[in-house]
Prior knowledge:
Blueprint: E1 2-9, H1 13-24, E2 29-33, H2 40-44, E3 50-51, E4 60-61, H3 62-73, E5 91-93, E6 97-102, E7 108-112, E8 117-125, E9 131-134, E10 148-149, H4 158-161, E11 168-172, H5 176-187, E12 196-201, H6 210-221, E13 226-229, E14 231-238, E15 241-248, E16 254-258, E17 261-264, E18 268-271, E19 282-283, E20 286-288, E21 301-303, E22 308-309, H7 317-335, H8 350-356
Parallel strand pairs: 1-2, 1-8, 2-5, 8-21, 10-17, 11-12, 11-17, 12-13, 20-22
Antiparallel strand pairs: 3-4, 6-7, 7-8, 9-18, 14-15, 15-16, 19-20
Helix pairs in contact: 1-3, 1-7, 5-6
Bound molecules: flavin-adenine dinucleotide.
Flavin-adenine dinucleotide binds next to helix 1, strand 2, helix 2, strand 9 and helix 7.
Amino acid sequence: MIDTDAVVIGAGPVGLFQVFQLGLLGIKAEIIDVLPEAGGQCMALYPDKPIYDIPGVPVCTGRELTQQLLQQAAPFLLVDTGSSKATPRNLHLGQMVARLAPQATGGFVVETEEGPSFHAKAVFIAAGAGAFVPKTLSIPELQGAANLHYHLPSFDDHAEAAAWAGQHLVVSGGGDEALSAVASIMQAPAAQRPARLTLLHRRAQFQAEAPLAEAVQALIDQGAIELAVGMPTGTRIQNGRIEALSLLNADSATVELPLQHLLIRQGMSPKLGPLTNWGLALERKQLSVQAHSFETSVPGIYAIGDINTYPGKKRLLLCGFHEATLAAHHAAAALHPEAPQHLLYTTTSPLLHKRLGVAP
Length: 360
Ligand SMILES: Cc1cc2nc3c(=O)[nH]c(=O)nc-3n(C[C@H](O)[C@H](O)[C@H](O)COP(=O)(O)OP(=O)(O)OC[C@H]3O[C@@H](n4cnc5c(N)ncnc54)[C@H](O)[C@@H]3O)c2cc1C
């Protein structure tokens, strides 16, 4: 059980900014996301598309905004000194928050499905449209197979990438996610690439950005990768591993595609899932909050960003950043009622400079 001042559920743009605002106010936070990387919708849905309405930033992509938010929050993201691991200690990725319960003794317990549990004095739900979970093939037997993957490993991390290195990998999908995965895998160092790569799609045409589709088509034409066209209808599984997929091809014949690893890249869909069971007031699948504090129906639990609703709510990044700021100030006053609640400027406050690590 990790004991902390605050837990932020969701490492999307608003969750990341929440950690920054809490840090400025001297509140330590742990941040959790089910995705393997931070950035929420910005990274999962539009990493390379431009955003034009962030104040003072005329244009940036979803990926650039995420990188800037991570950089801004860096003083409050705890990277172990001397460690080669880039993921901060208080950023818990690949973890679904399953339970949130107030404690009779005060504070809240936050439990993840398979990872750590937390005891926090305040909780900030920045869950967006819900936990992003990968879309999958409708073959229930596949679930839980040891050689089924949804996410690309970091190709700097040799141990992770080795899962399919030198073997036959099938990538399922025909959109941007699948094609960009194929392109990244083919650009990985030779020792981390599969020996054989097959792109599996139900049609020979792709629904991806034209330059990406052309690049992957060129790899197919050169014979660097193979294309299997067909609709997956079944699987052969042995000892918990997928050995082959059955495909219904254009001639209505069923053929078998043997494989050693299957990477499904068919996009993400948000699942509101667990948070509907946490006893918080909901209005049309959004968490109802007070517009001055962004507190939910349970004092000490805040909801910010796309997940909340209140009169006049707009699902915009700018609004989420404003909500995170006011929620942090409200929580600081509630957690430390004895402390003076002066508004400090980052420009001039020596205390904030110290917290930001920029004091002379
Ligand atoms: C295509 C597109 C373009 C957009 N363009 C703009 C724009 O130009 N300007 C603008 O202002 N807005 C834009 N938006 C909206 C903007 O992206 C959202 O307002 C913003 O992402 C909301 O941020 P968030 O942090 O609240 O939620 P999200 O970005 O949705 O992040 C929430 C995170 O919480 C995680 N999560 C949820 N539940 C759990 C759980 N139980 N356990 C663990 N993790 C969980 C999710 O996996 C996700 O990573 C756009 C949206 C889309 C889809």
